Amino acid sequence: MTAIRQDDVIQSVADALQFISYYHPLDYIQAVHRAYEKEESQAARDAMAQILINSRMCAEGKRPICQDTGIVTVFVRVGMNIQWNGDMSLEDMINEGVRRAYTHPDNVLRASILNDPAGARKNTGDNTPAVIHTTVVPGDTLEFDVAAKGGGSENKSKLAMLNPSDDIVEWVLKTVPTMGAGWCPPGMLGIGIGGTAEKAAVLAKESLMDPIDIDELRVRGPQNRIEELRLEIMDKVNDLGIGAQGLGGLTTVVDVKIKDYPTHAASLPVAMIPNCAATRHIHFTLDGSGAAEFEQPKLEDWPEITWDAGPTARKVNLDTVTREEIADWKPGETLLLSGIMLTGRDAAHKRILQLLESGEGLPDGVDLNNKFIYYVGPVDPVRDEVVGPAGPTTATRMDKFTDAMLEKTGIMGMIGKAERGQVAIDAIKKHKAVYLMAVGGAAYLVSKAIRKSKVIAFEDLGMEAIHEFVVDEMPVTVAVDVEGNSVHQTGPAEWFEKIHSAEPVTVK
Fold first, then answer.
1. Which of 170, 184, 283, 420 pairs as cysteine with 440 (C-beta 3.0–4.6 A)?
2. pTM here?
């Protein structure tokens, strides 16, 4: 009988979460590099280059791949012959490991978990509790799959109770375009089929723990219906032309994972959950011999990628830019931003509008008139950092606030990731503002352009407080211009046409 020490569980979970915060799974890096090499959309290539460069920087600096360091999900298989050495419950051990990982002084991870989700939504401060799935199995070991799932990709999860005669592939192809780019492609799709509604969702999440092996499957050929579905969905989703970051291109997914389970004769539950460009997961086993050890990958395992904005990039001084100048910006154009910008996410937007509507006005130092606001919740800095990883959050969450914010505060431009919905596009056109896109999954790279940072309002909101950033040549793409033209609409449409045209796709 194996004796599992409480401290070994805690330490292993903590070490695993630190490890995956800055080391991508190498199979993902290799898959993105293959996609990068064959990509013919320049915008998508640039986005993947930034993702790959960011990944190597994080491996070198041991800092988070993404500012959203995720909600922790754990699948644990408990051997029936285990004897426990400790007085905590398994759930408490795992959560203590999460607590230690997210408050580690050398690599602070962002606390994103809120208590009372339908009410006060108060941050727990240490990213606990984790979402834990426990199975008791024969044997005398303790097996873990640990993941840190970002909110941007988790929010794009889909569940459908199909009729048994419905076509699963048809549902996927209809659904993926509705997910937009907030899940930061290129990534993986996890699909669960069967069981009940909740079982299908758990299957989809669990499938994302498996290694990327679609190329090997393609070479040997499918051996069952699930493998046939993986290949069919992979090819047909990529043929949609959505591309990296939703900018249009050849690769949207680098693998499709599917798990199934028997279901009721009247039912066909299907769940789909994407993994983003900051995919983070790891497997380890405890056998009583001590805490898990994680082998550090070699830097030479990362591809040597270089990227710069190029000679056509427009340099913009945020302190002097005018509305006449932004009227000349075109969708897809690369900008290098320098100067002062303010930050603000969902909670800050809600509070700003409440203050304005009450007549109380904004706090001292918060002047948004003719300014740019960056949708970000940065990681706390460590050592000599000005700010921790500070990549963009999903802009569509701010859509419902956009018209009022533009009208009441005079904001000139917004910066985030992914597309804007039509309600936001209409507001942007109405107020002659612009929306700029930074690459999701390149948070550490983006943070290196931030020269100064300070909290100027709403400190009680934690990572959602309003910061003032001073940036130097921060790279962004014009995503929606003052006329309401969106690159997230034109880009995928253009590449869908190219992919399905009889003419060969040509490099831009």
1. 184
2. 0.94
